[in-house]
Structures are given as structure tokens and as C-alpha cells.
Amino acid sequence: MSVVYDCAVEQDRADGLAAAASAVRAGRLVVLPTDTVYGIGADAFSSSAVSSLLAAKNRGPDMPVGVLVGSWSTIDGLVLSVPRTARLLIEAFWPGDLSIVLPHAPSLSWDLGRSGGTVMLRMPLHPVAIELLREVGPMAVSSANRSGQPPAANAADAREQLGDSVAVYLDGGPSGEPVPSTIVDLTGDEPAVLREGAVSVAAVAEVLGTEVQSPA
User: What is the total count of domains within the chain?
Assistant: First the structure.
């Protein structure tokens, strides 16, 4: 049976974060607010938990799950190397609506889907999400909805779609505009924007000081 915690109430927030952290460590799923839409999250290093996340969304491994982190420095242990381009984007846009794709560290034993040896990383600009991430470490997070359905803009929407497949719902109130993060791929010779979302291609190019490939 899932439990919903109202994070606008101080004691509920504390209890909810503790319950969510316990659930993640036990390989269970949680729903958390982010600065875009609500996310469904799991321990990024538990392949069974990530499989449960994909099953809850009715989604296959062909669309790999991104990873949210709670600090800039966390990514140093997750990727093969952090190029200067990544540092510039992190300093400019994290925490916020920019996701960065990099080759992941080969020593990591995780299974986020068919990612081709890469990982998509983001640090969200939401205090509840940040507090949970700093407690449990990197989390595999996808939008809190069933595949093909609209992303959840609040905890009630998420619960209606995902039900008891999720152990803990952290209700942080309505999300902002349902605009996805911009995704920048840094795995090639030149930076490429795979999806233009809340951060414009022009803003990315300005920070990097170079032309950036745009999505088709």
C-alpha cells in the first residue's frame, strides 16, 4: 500500500523524506517533485529497482532512464571523464532544466536500459528532490506517468496512473510549466542538442562559445 506525504507540512515532509529514503534503499519506487514534472525514481544502482520502474511505466529498456544527482561533484564518480564543456554547462545551468549525456564510468554496475555506454545526468532545482538525492545518492528517474499518458503535474496525477506500484509519494504541490529539460549530448566530437526544452539552443551555444548542433 502506497503512502502520500504532504511536503508543505514540516513534519510530513520530514517523515516523507525518511520513508522515501528507506524505500529507495529497499529497492522500491518513489514519486518525487522536480522543477519540471513529477518523477518516478529508484536506486540507480539496483537493476531490479530500475526494472520495476520501467514495468510501472509500461516501458521497455529501449528508452533508457536518466539519472538525477544532488550535487555537482556527484558526477565525477559516474562518468568516464568530465570535459570542460560539461563543467561550463553545469556551472551555468545546474541545478536546473539541462540534462547532459556523457559516457558512463565502465566500472559502474548499473542497468538503465539500452544506453550504449552513456548516461543522461541532471541536477533538479527542487528542494525536496535535492534533499532526497543527497540522502540516498544518484537515482534513476523518469516522468511519473504510464507510457503514452501525460506526465504528472502533481502527486495525485501520478498516483492515479501508477497506484501501488510506488511505495511513497512525496507531494510537493503542483509542478511548474510541463516543459522538459533540454538534453545536450557531449559524447561526440561536437556538442549536440538532442532535445530543446526549457533551455534554448542559443543559451547552450552562448555558454560553450561555439556553434551547437540542433535537433532535427
Answer: 1
Measuring CA to CA, which residue among 137, 140, 121, 127 is closest to residue 170? 127
Phi, psi of 150 (to 5 degrees): -65, 140
Residue 95: cis peptide before it, omega within 30 degrees of 0: yes
Which grid coordinates are listed for 68? Answer: 538525477
- Burial string for 25-56 (b: 16+ CB within 10 Å, else e) reads eebbbbbbbbbbbbbbbbbbbbbebbebbbeb
pTM summary value: 0.94
Residues 6 or more apart from 2 whose CB is under 8 A from it?
Answer: 159, 163, 164, 166, 167, 168, 169
Give Cα 88 distance to the centre of its chain: 20
67 falls within a domain: yes
- 122 strand-pairing partners: 68
Q: What CATH number does residue 61 fall under?
A: 3.90.870.10
Domain residue limits at 16:
3-177
The C-alpha cell at 103 is 559516457
Hey, is 5 helix, strand or coil? strand
- The 10s digit of each residue's pLDDT in 144-177 is 999 999 889 999 999 999 999 999 999 999 987 7
Q: Is 41 inside a domain boundary?
A: yes
Kind and range of the H or E element at 171? strand 168-171
**Is residue 186 included in any domain, yes or no?**
no
The 3-state DSSP class for residue 142 equals strand
Helix/strand/coil percentages in the chain, nearest 5:
35, 20, 45
